[in-house]
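hiii so um. not sure if this is the right channel but i have a protein structure encoded as tokens and i wanna go backwards to a sequence. like what aa goes where. can anyone help
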């Protein structure tokens, strides 16, 4: 009996290693790669000193890793700033850029994949990340615009956290203004309701309905604690004939009694005075034990500025959703986003300070040359996104690196951030050897 032939499986072909676009000619080749804003960002990354700080903070390196974790993390940082390609596509993204622009050598481009990124994030999660990183408020003329004081009595929350109480003169004034405004608006609405109750065609015929309207007004303006109200029922008598026709001396009348409601209200001065004693007082709860009361207050006052920067995680960077399964890798990736925010903040500060020094109010950075008063790092990156870099190699001749001619706006931006146009092509990150522990 002839044996059945087993179905043969197709041999799995290895995925083709992506490479940069290249034109070849006898005796030479021309490679086209994207330069973009990497030369600008590399200068800002150097200021963060991450290339020197990370090796000391990361755990000992696994020699089986083909790409040093520090290099993998810095390439991921550049990707977050420029492209934000998914992790599995970073290898294809990397080959479109010059190796030295990413801080790599050409042989390391092929080692850049999602596995190297994941292992580098594992190392970053185990790193010692924290090691990486009263008062009168005055205006520009030196005038006092706020004064702060604090309680000397230490306190803790039920969870054991440190709790401090502060008093602000400016907040006390604002609290008093807000309270008086709420009371005034509530009184105005109660007066309108009182006029409706006196109308002969009023719709408020039940005491429950009147009380609900009063409660709604007080809750809407947050004045329930400061205004005392009372709904007063009143009997109203009316008389009419018991039959039709003109009234006479023998006409009998029927009396009807209807219940109407009136409203009285007053301000609870005692409660207002009691609440006024806490005007300007606010607590701060923290788990930091080595900060003084003044240092904690300074850190708290910086919170709006920090939150404005971190809001870009939801808008500009669109962090969520994160397609990672391991929680520790997600935490390490968010740390890389923090580094990206730091680089963008350095770039924006230097550019805006240069505009102020040069007395430049706006730059034509928006479409159709529209003026931009506060340029952002994202806009700068977008303006340089299409700038390519060409590498020409010929036999017996030195390699030439050329960059497409820059526009007038691009040259002006480079000058403001301290990177001359002549150094733009040479302003890439030079690959450096990372010492292995």
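sure thing!! here u go:
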């Amino acid at each position: 009996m002839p044996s059945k032939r087993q179905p043969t499986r197709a041999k799995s072909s290895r995925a083709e290693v992506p490479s940069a676009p290249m034109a070849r000619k006898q005796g030479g080749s021309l490679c086209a790669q994207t330069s973009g804003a990497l030369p600008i960002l590399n200068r800002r990354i150097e200021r963060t000193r991450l290339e020197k700080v990370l090796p000391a903070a990361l755990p000992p390196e696994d020699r089986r890793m083909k790409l040093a974790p520090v290099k993998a993390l810095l390439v991921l940082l550049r990707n977050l700033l420029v492209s934000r390609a998914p992790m599995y596509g970073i290898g294809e993204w990397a080959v479109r850029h010059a190796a030295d622009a990413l801080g790599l050598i050409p042989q390391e481009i092929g080692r850049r994949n999602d596995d190297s990124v994941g292992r580098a994030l594992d190392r970053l999660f185990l790193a010692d990340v924290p090691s990486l990183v009263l008062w009168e408020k005055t205006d520009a003329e030196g005038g006092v615009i706020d004064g702060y004081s604090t309680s000397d009595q230490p306190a803790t929350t039920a969870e054991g956290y440190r709790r401090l109480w502060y008093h602000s003169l400016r907040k006390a004034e604002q609290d008093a203004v807000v309270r008086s405004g709420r009371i005034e608006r509530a009184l105005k609405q109660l007066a309108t309701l009182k006029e409706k109750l006196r109308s002969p065609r009023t719709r408020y015929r039940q005491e429950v309905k009147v009380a609900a309207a009063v409660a709604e007004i007080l809750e809407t303006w947050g004045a329930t604690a400061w205004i005392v109200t009372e709904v007063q029922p009143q009997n109203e008598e009316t008389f009419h004939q018991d039959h039709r026709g003109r009234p006479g001396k023998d006409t009998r009348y029927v009396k009807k009694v209807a219940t109407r409601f009136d409203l009285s209200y007053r301000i609870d001065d005692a409660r207002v005075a009691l609440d006024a004693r806490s005007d300007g007082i606010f607590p701060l709860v923290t788990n930091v034990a080595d900060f003084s009361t003044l240092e904690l207050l300074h850190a708290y006052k910086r919170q709006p500025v920090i939150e404005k920067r971190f809001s870009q995680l939801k808008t500009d960077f669109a962090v969520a959703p994160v397609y990672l399964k391991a929680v520790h890798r997600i935490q390490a990736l968010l740390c890389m986003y923090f580094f990206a925010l730091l680089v963008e903040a350095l770039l924006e500060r230097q550019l805006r300070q240069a505009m102020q020094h040069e007395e430049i109010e706006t730059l034509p950075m928006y479409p159709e040359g529209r003026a931009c008063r506060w340029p952002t790092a994202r806009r700068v990156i977008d303006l340089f996104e299409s700038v390519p870099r060409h590498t020409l190699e010929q036999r017996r001749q030195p390699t030439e690196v050329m960059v497409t001619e820059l526009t007038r706006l691009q040259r002006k931006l480079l000058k403001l951030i301290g990177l001359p146009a002549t150094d733009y092509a040479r302003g890439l990150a030079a690959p450096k050897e990372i010492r292995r522990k």
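oh and The CA atoms of residues 284 and 297 lie 8 Å apart.
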